[in-house]
Amino acid sequence: MVKVGQKTDEIMGDIIKEHRNNLGSGKTGSGESGSEDIVDVLIKLKDSDSLPMSITDDNIKAVILDLFAGAVDTSKTTTVCAMVEMVKNPRVLAKAQAQVREVFKGKEKVEESDMEKLSYLNLVIKETLRLHPPGSVIYRENNKESVICGYTIPPRTRVLINAWAIGRDPQYWEDPESFKPERFENDPMDFTGNQFKYMPFGSGRRICPGISFGLANVCTPLAHLLYHFDWELPHGTTPHTLKLSELPGLAIGVKNDIFFIAAPPPAA
I need a surface site. Which of 40, 103, 179, 238 has the fewest CB within 10 A? Predict the structure, then answer.
């Protein structure tokens, strides 16, 4: 029987081998549209010996594993939060579900190529990330003295930015505690944190590198859940009594168990 650790190591090794072969065959990179991805960059750094300390294939495997593990855990939490918010807001659930079923009508499964058509579901995810950012606290260290609101921040001070509180600040958001995906409908705001009132993945050059992977890990399961099932609350529970308790920390978790009833959709 192959141990999980050994199998994971083999998978990571195959990924590195594939990327190295692509680079050796003259390809620019293995990313989307032939661009470089993080594995290509790490392989080039390793082979160039340009770093003050050497890196190994094991170091590259660890980075790949961190990206997958981090995105999987936070994506799971975001998916749960999105489902809870939709069930608590039946209007939003009905609208998102109607669009998903219209886009994938007649198909046995959700196709990845059609995900960009799910405009309203993307608004739901944006609003979920405003209220429940996976990285609730962003860690930074300033490299020079700064003065903010009259306070002098010395160099090399560890600064914690509360993205959770910023996303609920009434100074920046109208009716901030309400779940309203439509607030993003005509707003060009994206996930890159350039507008500092919305930073679900952080901001700047140390922004989360797994944005695309994380968003796909949320959008795809939600689309499947909405497409294949109707969702109801257990007897005795109402949208008003349904509670979502979050675990505080650098990454938000869900404290309490959440139960829904899944039923097959009515026959077409």
Answer: 238
